[in-house]
Amino acid sequence: MEAVSVHLEPPVCIIDADPAVRDSIAAVVDLYGIAVMSYSTGTSFFNDVERLLTIRCVLCAAQLPDTSGFDIFRRLDALGIDVPFALMLSRPSAGVLRTAQVLGIAAVLEKPLLEPARVLDFISEPTH
């Protein structure tokens, strides 16, 4: 576990190898009083996931040092964890968008995330 904010509600989980991306998203989300947990790898996220009773949503990089965002989504699904999931990547190709849609990924967010409102809209959306 790399960063934790103290809140009672379910956290937004951010998974990205780039500490600047994690920190910038976490700072924006935390400003709105929303709990945040951030991770640099899929392994560190899954080491924590069983301890989390609920997760508000996941914002995950498409590529991580140890896995892919698609693999994390599939593993959550296999564990029966139904959580809104956003895939973050620099250049979403038609193939990536199609795969995300087929898998049921709620959103694809293009990096850099220059519009904090898009992230907050995703996090705040009651149904995904």
SSE topology:
Layout: E1 3-4, E2 12-15, H1 19-31, E3 36-39, H2 42-49, E4 57-61, H3 69-78, E5 85-89, H4 94-103, E6 107-110, H5 116-124
Parallel strand pairs: 2-3, 2-4, 4-5, 5-6
Antiparallel strand pairs: 1-3
Features:
Rossmann fold; 128 residues; 39% helix; alpha/beta; globular; six-stranded mixed sheet; 5 helices
CATH topology, anyone?
Rossmann fold
Our measurement of the CA-to-CA distance between the termini, rounded to an integer number of angstroms, reads 26 Å
Give the overall silhouette: globular
* Main pleated-sheet profile: 6 strands, mixed
| CATH architecture title | 3-Layer(aba) Sandwich
Helical percent range? 25-40%
Q: What is the CATH top level name?
A: Alpha Beta
- Helices, by number, come to 5
Number of strands: 6
SSE class: alpha/beta
Note the beta-strand portion.
15-25%
Rounded mean pLDDT score = 88
Radius of gyration: 13 Å
**CATH homologous superfamily assignment:** Response regulator
Question: Into how many domains do the coordinates divide?
Answer: 1
Instruction: Please list the strands of the largest sheet in the order they lie side by side.
Output: 1-3-2-4-5-6
What is the succession of H and E elements? EEHEHEHEHEH
Runs with pLDDT <50, length 5+?
Answer: none
